Amino acid sequence: VTLIAIFRQVIGIKAFGIYTPLIVTLAFLASGKLIYGIILFAIAIILGMLLRVLLRPLRMLYLPRLAIMITLISLIVFGLLVLGNWIGLPALSNLSVLPIIIMIALMEKFIAVSIEKGNRTAIILSLETVIISVICYYVIIWQWLINILILYPYLVLFTLPINFLLGKWTGLRISEYLRFRKLIK
């Protein structure tokens, strides 16, 4: 979580808050291979955008439309799992249900941002979420770090002062330096 806070406060990558990259990272871990998790995330985002466009002419209220979209995405993903099992694709048939449920649940955030701020912002936040999640994935599977934390679990407490310092951060983010580089010169 501290790494995600660093990305937000120091670098300026927004993503979908602090919880979403964390849960996407866990979904990547549960999917077995990182590439399967990224593909699953991409499928969920593409289906969400497509269904949003298809349901727009119906002029439905937000929650019923969201419920329909999540149900349809769930059915499509379930159909892909059945298809993978039927044609003998181990990558699809052995996929854990947990990352699928997580990705489908995250569609609500994507759809909400898409409705409030547009598809472009939702896609940018999705990409930023994936970037942070992939980096966090590699940190979590880093064997050296795992060994250190198993031997010295109290080292996790050092994240508290780091988060405190991040909370007091008043400087510009790296993205702001890039954004305002002409003014800074």
UniProtKB/TrEMBL annotation:
The keyword Membrane applies. It comes from the Bacteria. Residues 3-183 form the 7 transmembrane helices usually fused to an inactive transglutaminase domain. The keyword Membrane applies. Keywords: Membrane, Transmembrane, Transmembrane helix. The chain crosses the membrane at residues 12-29, 35-54, 66-89, 95-115, 122-145, 151-172. This is 7 transmembrane helices usually fused to an inactive transglutaminase domain-containing protein. It comes from Candidatus Berkelbacteria bacterium Licking1014_85.
